[in-house]
Hints:
The structure holds 2 protein chains of 2 kinds.
Chain A: E1 10-12, H1 31-34, E2 51-57, E3 63-69, H2 71-75, E4 79-83, E5 95-96, E6 102-103, E7 109-110, E8 126-127, E9 132-133, E10 139-145, H3 148-156, E11 159-164, H4 171-175, E12 188-196, E13 207-215, E14 227-232, E15 238-242, H5 247-258, E16 265-269, H6 285-295, E17 299-302, H7 305-311, E18 318-326, E19 332-344, H8 350-356, H9 361-364, E20 369-378, H10 392-410, H11 414-421, H12 441-452, H13 454-459, E21 467-478, E22 489-496, E23 502-508, H14 515-527, E24 534-538, H15 555-582, E25 589-591, E26 595-598, E27 601-607, H16 608-618, E28 624-630, E29 637-648, E30 654-664, H17 671-690, E31 721-726, H18 748-760, H19 771-778
Parallel strand pairs in A: 1-31, 2-17, 15-16, 19-20, 23-24, 30-31
Antiparallel strand pairs in A: 2-10, 3-9, 3-11, 4-10, 5-6, 7-8, 12-20, 13-18, 14-15, 14-17, 18-19, 21-29, 22-23, 22-28, 25-26, 26-27, 29-30
Chain B: E1 2-7, E2 10-15, H1 22-29, E3 48-51, E4 54-57, E5 70-72, H2 85-92, H3 102-115, H4 121-127, H5 139-148
Parallel strand pairs in B: 1-5
Antiparallel strand pairs in B: 1-2, 3-4, 3-5
Helix pairs in contact in B: 2-5
Amino acid sequence: MEFHKERGAIMANQISDQFQYVGKSFPVQDAWLKVQGEATYTGDMVIPGMHFAKLLFSPIPHGRIVSIDTIKAEALPGVIGVFSHLNAPISAQPHRHTDGAVGACSQLTFNRYRTIPQQELCPEDESLFPETVRYVGDRVAAVVAVTMAIAAEAVKLIQVEYEPLPAVLDPRDSLAGLGAAIHPGGNLLHEYHLEAGKPEVMPEDSITLSSWSRAPKMHHAAMETHVCLADYHPSGKITIYTPCQGAFGVRTIVADLLQMPYRLIRVVKTTMGGSFGGKQEPILEPVAAFLARATRRPVQMIFDRPETMVSTMCKPVTESTITTTAAPDGRLLDCRVDDLFDAGAYATSSVDHAHAMSKKILRLYQIPYYGHRSRTVYTNTPISGGMRGWGAPEIITAMEIHMDRLAKKLALDPAALRAKNLVCPGDLDGVTGMTLGNARIRDCLEKGMISFQWTKRRARTQDEGRFRRGVGLACAAHKNGMYKGFPEYSTMILKMNEDGSVILNTGQHDVGCGTLQAMKLIAAEGLDLDPEMIDVLEADTETGPYDFGCYASRATYIGGACALGAGQKMRQILLQAAGKIFMVPSQHLATDRGTIFIKGAPERRLSYREVATKAAMEFNMELIVTHTHYGTSNPGVYAAHFAEVEVDTCTGLVRVVDYLAVHDVGQAINRMMVEGQIQGGVQMGIGMALCEELKIGADGRTINNSFRKYDVINAPDMPEVKVLLVEEGGDDGPFGAKSVGEIALVPVAAAVVNAVNHALGSDLSDLPLTPQKIIRSIYGVKSSETGVE
Amino acid sequence: MLISFILNGQETCLEIEPDWRLIDLLRDKLGLTGSKEGCGEGECGACTVIMDGKAVHSCLVLALQIRGREIITIEGLAKNGELDQIQSAFIKNGAVQCGYCTPGMIMSAKALLMQNPHPTNEQIRIAIAGNICRCTGYSKIIAAIGEAAGN
């Protein structure tokens, strides 16, 4: 396959003409509204009489609240109420903490990651308004007022006295026992070991290499900040409008915290301006719901950018030391990983997140023995949470940087080393024992190498001048859904209106990537109906079916399979009904884009509308199906990325000048949006590699809590990202489709870092590779990086 | 205070507060919520509107600064329900995902094409340098603007 220079060139392995809609390109379902500014996001919503809430955040990283004086704030005209731990929800019963201690009946604690009742790995250490603040940005109090401006003004009038406690900001310091205990159980939140295979005695000629890398604290940087609108109805029902990734999880947490029955909390997923995991946990919702109930009015909460950067969640700092032993020909024999994971001030999802990091490497490589130790620590810094890939970018970045170092040590080409170890189709995941399905990573690597002209570019003589070019690659693996280890199913209700149009009622959450359009295309294919006749509803806990949420790369693999099943079921019902009308067995009928005809006599044809009307009016048939799809597999999804960079050895600035992403997607559902997701993931990964990092000062404040000082990649600095898709199907997703949204980020940072290291002959692995770090490396000035050899 | 200005082709006269930003006037006073506040400090471009032919961050313009000027917002692009070429190109080229950056991005593109009807790829990138997109990686946005320019 030739290397194409066309802008955004897409070459699929086989552009499918076998489907009418699936595999072709469509805009997202509401693009038409969005380009006119007519899409309504939560911050655009107005409920008559609604009030506004602003929060007071802690200015210190660790301390006890000695007193809160809200008198001046409450006296400000327009202020409805001021809330803090003094009037936060209390438990009716003594509360048992995670370390077994029984707490006083004051603060109800919760874990905002706990989506379902009785969920494991969810230490409950957070409260609505804590009595002890644990990071700069922790919630202290809330003001509800008749305007946003008055609420903000009143926040400034709240006077708080703190008794500072020793703070620990660096995860290594926390691991070493420095600083005060942030929670009763101590600062080592969780230690975790995992083993796959049996350690063997290593052959004499084997080579061992150990390396360290660090992935930075990052801001998700969705363009829409965090926002929530909680509407209180006099009947006692609270309706929460929120751009979330799991409406039912929001309901669980809010209802349990406010001690209300689930039927009185309705959560409606609204149009979302991006999330990338940042809106996966209910952060604003419990507060807004509490305030709405307390003031008996609708309450809108909008975080500005600095608040979103600091007081929601951020991608965790992780440090990984990877030690591999390989045969001289590059075969990996033994791999040990030691992770340090910074949870920040509260546990939330960090325990599960640390676990997730242990399950990725064996999806990508065949290694006889794998040992993983991870330690998760609290620090007095902004709370960690999952960001796109949920542990995969962190651990795969570390592994792929390590593999390049190993290749150097073994004098092997980096691609050749990967090829020696990558999984093959049908291999088993060493950790879970599940089949990896039609794992096409080798195809991705081979096709990518040819298209990118890898060998030629890699062999190019190194430049001597100011600008040095280099190329790097990285392979990645991820998953499709939550099967094995967590319940996994999705339910949808499909009903046909009398005019033959359809409403597909789902528990889906479109994060902005066009999930609903994909559901339309899949249902349309199953139903044999123009997608424009199909309307897809998003998650609404009151009116829609249960769904776990949009995460874990399950939306297409599980949700899409459900949409297909529902469409196919409805098509069968229509055939039955048409059979009655034609007085012909339904096996003799066929469908064609919203019509049903008799095989061999196509002039005898009815539209779905005619069938639907007759069914309703004459056969007492309602055309409605409820379909549940159960996940029974979790194949690997793969990608190989290739980057070319140019390093300015005078300034330390790095430009990514060329980029190729090859993805094993099984079957693209909406081709244009698959490419778009990949290209977006590359923007995020380049930022992770080169410039994105939330920096915490010695006083615990986030120094760069604004876009002015937090650098993301803008249009002039973004390379043209070419995309190649490998579509070999073979797994249980709709039409063989596998995920793309998360894996799009996973290999990027390593590909860029490996390219920089190739350009400079360096071994940089402390992300991001800022100009300062690059200059220090070039001129041999010691940095604080510890490279273990 | 009372100010007069032209908004999306219409002569407008409004009572404003001296501390309002243009984005507050548009969103809160006039209900034109197409322009978004992504950062409040002129870095992300989600609030971009056109003032006297130039793309500006409405979060950095005081409402009273628009007195006597002509403002175009995203809501003013489509004429009688017919989309502007840039809007159609965005839809067709997959340049819209979550849509939050889209209004500002389109307004920056509009301002560019009003000045320079046939920009190069590089000129397009620079025109949207002040508009952050976290979803698309910019490729399809640049392709869309190029198509609207007839490139």
